[in-house]
Design brief:
Elements (H helix, E strand, L loop, with lengths): L1 H26 L6 E2 L4 E3 L4 E4 L7 E6 L3 E2 L6 E8 L9 E4 L8 E5 H10 L7 E12 L2 E4 L4 E6 L12 E3 L13 E2 L1 E4 L2 E8 L2 E6 L8 E5 L2 E4 L3 E3 L4 E8 L4 E14 L4 E8 L4 E9 L2 E3 L2 E3 L1 E9 L5 E7 L20 E3 L9 E2 L7 E8 L7 E6 L1
Parallel strand pairs: 3-11
Antiparallel strand pairs: 1-5, 2-4, 4-8, 6-7, 6-9, 9-10, 9-11, 12-13, 12-16, 14-15, 15-20, 16-17, 16-19, 17-18, 20-21, 21-22, 21-26, 22-23, 23-30, 24-25, 26-27, 26-29, 27-28, 30-31
């Protein structure tokens, strides 16, 4: 009896092993056979597309379905290469709509513009991109039986517009240490600016202050990739404005900023540049102007500028309101925000000093700092 049970126990592992081996074999029999995409349907071969990345325009890539031998699901990706490429090192691989399930890809003009830029097609230039479709089931990836090209015309501007832009270099206030690069203010999509001083030396713009960033520089009135700009002629204060949508750059020298006192129609005091986009005067007496109806306290700021070609001009910064009341302790901070105004009328769009300013020495500080809303302070001594 003992021998009988011993033989059973010895046989069990062998039997279980055969059962498990058999089950495992059945479970791992995955049929990955498939017929590739036989035909591409849209866009037609050599279709011309004028890219409009600033709009919601799209391009639809469509193809016949691939067929899996076992009738199961097939996944797709569109593969894009340079004209003449063999897809061995493509520019882009993009899963089709529906997470790769649909035999269609909807691609925005913005994304296609970025791909065209990576293919070496310059802004305002026309070039071709080659595309096909890979169908896959498991590890089996099959390219379509054909490939097509599209011809795209790129607009002006960069294919990739940075989210952030920083200023760095030995000519800048922060120096050439990338980690200390100064962030520009975003004023509109793709548009950045900074009020800052530059001394003699080199400077450039980067899209991040770590690692190996993309770099940009100003060449005349054009914004270009790579390289550096040069400041010469001594330290000066500028507004640097970059428009990545149109590869445009504007360098405006700020030659003076004065507190313009409306009732006297003149500059009361000039402000001196300090650093980081800030101007100030300190401990200056401010007296309101006596009128028949009372004390007039209206003011705004006159900015003297010089364009890159040497042309002098004037800009006015004042209130968003044509008229104001005197501020109090409960006045919102937005009252002091600086707005560029086109109306140079003597009295409109002026701020008003608080009542306690009259007859007192005060500090006035302007902040065109990139890390905050442009604003100003009046501090009674």
């Amino acid at each position: 009896m003992k021998t009988f049970f011993a033989n059973i126990l010895l046989a069990l592992p062998v039997s279980l092993g055969l059962i498990l081996t058999g089950c495992g074999k059945d479970d791992h029999e995955l049929n990955t056979n498939l017929m590739p995409v036989s035909r591409l349907n849209a866009p037609v071969d050599d279709k011309y597309i004028k890219l409009q990345p600033a709009t919601s325009a799209t391009v639809s890539f469509e193809w016949d379905q691939a067929r899996a031998e076992d009738g199961s699901l097939v996944l797709y990706e569109v593969v894009i290469d340079k004209d003449g490429g063999d897809f061995s090192n493509p520019i882009a691989k993009i899963s089709s709509d529906g997470g790769g399930v649909q035999n269609k890809l909807t691609l925005s003009h913005k994304d296609l513009n970025s791909i065209a830029g990576k293919a070496g097609i310059a802004a305002l230039a026309t070039g071709k991109l080659k595309w096909t479709v890979n169908a896959s089931k498991g590890y089996n990836i099959q390219p379509a039986a054909e490939a097509r090209t599209i011809e795209v015309e790129r607009p002006n501007g960069f294919a990739e517009i940075p989210v952030d832009v920083f200023l760095t270099g030995d000519a800048t206030e922060a120096g050439a240490d990338l980690a200390q690069a100064v962030k520009l203010k975003s004023t509109a999509p793709g548009v950045f600016e900074i009020y800052t001083s530059l001394k003699d030396g080199k400077y450039k713009f980067v899209d991040r202050n770590t690692g190996t960033p993309a770099t940009y520089f100003i060449d005349g009135s054009t914004l270009k990739e790579g390289g550096e700009s040069t400041q010469s002629g001594g330290t000066k204060v500028y507004r640097l404005r970059l428009d990545f949508n149109n590869t445009a750059a504007t360098i405006t020298e700020i030659t003076a900023i004065g507190l313009w006192f409306a009732p006297e129609n003149s500059i009361m005091y000039d402000l001196s540049y300090t650093s980081n986009g800030a101007w100030t005067f300190e401990n200056k007496l401010i007296n309101f102007h006596q009128e028949s109806w009372g004390r007039d306290e209206r003011y705004k700021f006159r900015v003297s500028v010089k364009a890159a070609d040497g042309t002098a001009g004037t800009e006015w910064f004042g209130s968003s309101n044509a008229d104001n009341n005197r501020p109090t302790a409960t006045t919102p901070l937005s009252f002091w925000e600086l707005r560029l105004i086109v109306n140079s009328d003597q009295y409109n769009y002026c701020y008003k000093f608080a009542s306690e300013v009259d007859g007192k020495n005060c500090d006035v500080k302007l902040y065109f700092s990139p890390d905050k809303t442009y604003t100003h302070q009046v501090i009674v001594r």
